[in-house]
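Hi team,

As requested, here is the filled-out complex form for the calcium ion run. I kept the field names the same as last time so the parser does not choke. Let me know if anything looks off before we queue the next batch.

— J.
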Amino acid sequence: MAKKIILDLDTGVDDALALAYALGSPELELIGVTGTYGNVLVGTGVANDLSLLELFGHPEVPVYPGLRHARARDGFEVLEISAFIHGGNGVGDVELPEAQREAEEKSAVDFLVESVREYGDDLVIVATGPSTNVAAAIEADPEFARNAHLVIMGGALTVPGNVSAWAEANINQDPEASDLMFRKAADVTMVGLDVTLQTLLTYEDTAKWRELGTRAGTLLADITDYYIKAYETTAPYLGGCGLHDPLAVGVAVDESLVQLLGINMKVDTEGETRGRTIGDEQRLSDERKTARVAVAVDADRFLGELMRRIGSVLQQAD
Ligand code: BDR
Ligand code: CA
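And here is what came back:
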């Protein structure tokens, strides 16, 4: 039986790739997308999710709008660097056809809480934006922290951050929320920059999507090429764009793609290291580890899986 999955996305180019990866994975049943802010405003991200689901041939997947800003803030504005990397509209300034339907009335947080109550161990939540929705779900229902299986794209344990020397972008948006998640949730798998910056996509790869001759193939190639180009400026030494969010979905399907280190984690919320993901010194010797951090990845195997899974979605779409 396929494992149920919810994607919590701030869509975002690599969030779009994560969505395609999930839809192209027969091991998974995507029961909903919850929207968060981050690369874009929450409304823009939700509109992107609705358009992409239609483009990828899955208009049946519901989309639930999430919280609009971090818990310690009273608003949110898209950072200049986010717009540079993902485009002003989040999808590489490519114009996507507007979706024929609206988002659900139910909130992302309610949907997360209800789904964990209903499906328990049969459900995995993959969160590839700030931890704001997840932290709110933890606070809304004590059962959520005990029973949710979370895979997050975020953080950096063995390498520097990407918005500051310490902080990775998703954690940086809402460090208090990520800290609460690491301290309270019983099962978090962290897929951070340690591994995602080893998994790279190039123009040669996206050319294969364009060659499929489908509208979805062409548009996703255009969207991703914008992101690859941005990486040529921000991290030219990599030789491609980081496959952050799709790797988190890849790990949810098959965790043997990475090596996982069991460690109790926390997030620094004060001072110059604000946003740093690091082992919690007070729980270092606890026998029970509530987080597992990916510290090595089989990048070639993952790239093969990504091309095969996303390729199958783009081929079957219009
Ligand atoms: C993460 O930040 C966002 O910009 C990306 O979508 C990804 O989730 C990488 O640090
Ligand atoms: Ca993201």
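Two things worth flagging: Residues 215-234 form the longest helix (20 residues). The chain has a mean pLDDT of 97.

Thanks,
J.
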